[in-house]
Amino acid sequence: MAQGALVGFENVDGIGVITIDNPPVNALSPGVPEGIVEHLERGNANPAVKAMVLIGAGRSFIAGADIRQFGTNRPRPVPGKRTHEVLDASRKPVVAAIHGYALGGGLEVALASHYRIAVPSAKVGLPEVLIGILPGSGGTQRLPRLVGPKAAMEIIVSGRQVPAEEAHRLGIIDELVPEGADLRAAAIAMARRVADIRPLPRIRDRDEKLAQSKSDPGIFDAMRKSIARRARNQRAPYHCIAAVEAACTMPFDDGIRRERELFDELENSDEARALRYAFFAEREVAKLPGIPRETPLRPTDTAAIVGAGTMGGGIAMSFAEFGVPVKILDTTQDALDRGLARIRGNYETSCRRGSLTEAEMNRRLGLIEPVKSYDDIARCDVVIEAVFERIPVKEEVFKKLDEVMKAGALLFTNTSGIDIDIMANATKRPQDVAGTHFFAPANVMKLFEVVKGAKSAPDTLATAMALGRKIGKISAMAGNCDGFVANRSRGPFGTEMNLMVEEGALPERIDKVMVDFGYPIGPFATADLSGLDIGYDSRQRRAAQDPNFRKQPIADALVEMGRLGQKTGAGWFRYEKGDRTPHPDPEVVRVIQEKAKELGIEQHSFSDEEILHRLLFASVNEACKILEEGKAYRASDIDVMWLNGFNFPRYRGGLMYWADTVGGPAEVYRQISAWHQRYGARWTPAPLLRRLAETGIPFREAKPGRAM
Ligand code: 3H9
Questions:
Q1: Is 128 a known active-site residue?
Q2: Is the N or the C terminus of the chain less surrounded, counting Cβ atoms within 10 Å?
Q3: Looking at the domain assignment, is residue 461 inside a domain?
């Protein structure tokens, strides 16, 4: 293969081997599809070539179209010269040899090939929906012909990665070769075996599986109904269903045209732009300015958690899920028993719901070892402290860890608000200390906020970031400040939601606005789910320390009435026994009116937009302060935190990206200045916000004011 060529061709005794070599993931960037087409045509024209193999160099087959090309003025393929069309027209069999990933356009190339062979660790899928589009190179027409429309819809609408063994069972992969075997040699052997088979098996010619839709024409509407909740405000999932429906109702070539029309409608949609932004933001967040990618990482093969409470248990579950043995330390047998029972209970619920097998539950439980003594964790590579949020308790734990842990062990704290340097300074090895802030429930939420202490060593931070990825999280770096980045930027949202209630917006109204916006549940229902007592304790503490601290009189009154949220059957809402549906409660309205009167707060009506903007603009203003202080590296890191820590709707890109779509800094500044006049100091516009508004620089391009 010529050096630097994106696609190479080699004739191996009559088998033409076409190798795609476009690191890191063999995306179909400009030149790659053209190279594949050129070599397919060359192989067809060469009488010495009997069959062909398509294979990827490096770590993958093909990860799909080059996402950076979408939304640009990229050259469109000449009709008839699209890879899948050239494969359809091939007179010689082509075997796709899959390792790593065959995703999107990559799987579409494989589906247009005549045979597919893979290693068991390979993953295939059509994840286009996750970036707001649909498979646009025949995937929606070929996959239903191979696996039936129902299974195809499930794969296309979820966008999930299908492991090779499952793909083999479904018929997407024809043959598996053992892991570690020579895939290229196996694919060449297969090509030799099938070289003379005619007619060539083309998926486009098969329609027996489409019969499913004739006998059960309701499957498309049933699918639309089943996604209505999670796909609200989005078009791509519905377009995916429409494209599969077209596969079942139209001749193949018409279906392909329909797929292309639907694809074109989506490529530049707001949703697709936002989702592309989120995709790249989640890759950017891994890059730490000033810490080279090649920084050697410390080992993280064994882990320990101090504290068997809800958070500690959730963290232990995260490790076990990804196969990392984890010890969980608490001081009393009773606390350990309760912690372990909670973990088991969570697993059992998942088993009952069918999302976990019993064998997997037992495997995970086998990885979690309860221990009572610090000596039992001393040899672990990494320890995460997850005890009460009280400074003396945490200091004590870090002193103890400093005494017992082996040299070089990583000492992390899961605090959500305490100054990391207090813990670091309780040890003689502050370079090994950092914050690793999980979001509740820790085994579910993806965000892993790494907090940089004043003395955290670069390899401590790089390893913390890698550790988050190892346990399936999205790691994001934050500077050490009150609330760090995620909770600090979310704080003003929490303040405003409570103040708006005092001013006359009911919790159910605010929740509805936010659910309509795209949150899975509203902020008051979320508060009920977490438990109103959590915020109550910290408010009382802060009020005792700071005479200017403004308490939340309504929330406090609810707690004092014993309304702690879902767990007591009542909080901001009322709950029927055994049911999580929030019901508005006249009792809450009474408390609100009473408190508002007591406080002399004038009641007024709100528009939906006012509610939405008051909550989110307050946070945008705080995010600007965070950036100005250099506590976050990029505005897009804050977006990643909101997407993965707070369930901000992904198809809106994230807090800062969204703010750019509703007028950007100029509009946000105008509105915040007006609220500053009306409500006073808490709405003082951040200096960075003012500068962005004056210079016309969008939020997503805002640079931090100083280094972290
Ligand atoms: C499509 O195919 C449409 C078709 O229907 C045709 C329509 C006509 N493009 O994630 P990583 C970069 S749509 C451009 O850290 P991993 C990524 O930005 C596409 N760049 O690695 C990063 O760059 P950097 C359907 C891409 O091992 C580097 O590669 N396919 C693309 O954790 C490494 O990525 C998808 O949606 C791309 N397609 O995960 C798959 N993919 O180092 C999208 C990756 O500069 N990709 N990059 O930050 C993925 O899901 C993951 O990257 C993958 C590897 C699972 C493949």
A1: yes
A2: N
A3: yes
Asked whether residue 40 is assigned to any structural domain, the reply reads yes
Q: pLDDT tens for residues 55-71?
A: 999 999 999 999 999 98
Contacts of 555 (CB under 8 A, 6+ apart): 498, 527, 532, 535, 536, 539
DSSP string, 546-609: -TT----HHHHHHHHTT--BGGGTBSSSB--TT----B--HHHHHHHHHHHHHHTPPP----HH
Where is the domain boundary, 584, 605, 626?
A: 605
**Would you say the CB of residue 32 lies under 6 angstroms from ligand 1?**
no
Q: Residue 24: CB within 6 Å of ligand 1?
A: yes
Active-site option among 85, 108, 385, 496: 108
Residue of the CA atom closest to atom 5 of ligand 1 = 135
Measured from the CB, is residue 245 less than 6 Å from ligand 1?
no
- Domain assignment of residue 427, given as a range: 303-481
Q: How many domains does the chain have?
A: 3
Closest ligand 1 atom, CA of 139? 5
Ligand 1 centroid, distance to 25 Cα (angstroms): 7
How far does residue 548's CA lie from ligand 1's centre (Å)?
Answer: 49
CA proximity to 386, closest of 339, 345, 431: 339
At which residue do the structure tokens 């955290």 appear?
Answer: 456
Residue 120: inside a domain:
yes
Question: Which CATH number fits the domain that encloses residue 514?
Answer: 1.10.1040.50
Is 265 annotated as catalytic?
A: no
Calculate mean pLDDT across residues 250-273: 97
Q: Is 75 in the same domain as 136?
A: yes
| Predicted confidence (pLDDT) per residue in 341-357, tens digit | 999 999 999 999 999 99
Residue 333 Cα to ligand 1 midpoint, Å, equals 47
Same domain, yes or no: 198 and 331:
no
Burial of 184 (0-12, 13-18, 19+ CB in 10 A): middle
Give the tokens for residue 405: 């842990």
Q: Please write the tens of the pLDDT for every residue from 588-613.
A: 999 999 999 999 998 899 999 999 99
Which among 605, 621, 655 is the end of a domain? 605
Same domain, 220 and 340: no
**Residue 27 CA to ligand 1 centre (angstroms):** 7
227 lies in the same domain as 371: no
Whether ligand 1 lies within 6 angstroms of the CB of 122 is answered as no
277-333: pLDDT as tens digits: 999 999 999 999 999 999 999 999 999 999 999 999 999 999 999 999 999 999 999
